[in-house]
Amino acid sequence: MFKDTKAFSGFSVNDIPKAKAFYSQTLGLEVSEMNGMLQLHIAGGNPIIVYPKPNHTPATFTILNFPVDNVDRAVDELSKRGVQFEKYNMPDLKTDDKGIARGNGPNIAWFKDPAGNILSVLEDGG
Fold it and tell me: Which of 29, 35, 58, 74 could form an SS bridge with 68, CB 3.0 to 4.6 Å?
């Protein structure tokens, strides 16, 4: 039934202007706005919809992953832009001082958007 449907993803935020500034200026994505919602235009073609929700609760899982060639370089650049990376120290997940988890899958670092949703940059081994 949906084999040829061009599906797209969406998530909520509590402040569209803050989200627009973050995704366009901080992350450098092409962002458009229509009917009070944002569209994030990413490589691959299908947009991601960002919609306002007054009683928004941040996702407790990663909602968007950005593959990069070099996670250290991406973390350094985003840090210069004011992004703060999450630090984890659990038995099965530890991050270094930069916020990068290494050696258990791809090198990956997590950060939050202004609404508290969790995003990541991860090193693309391909």
Answer: 74
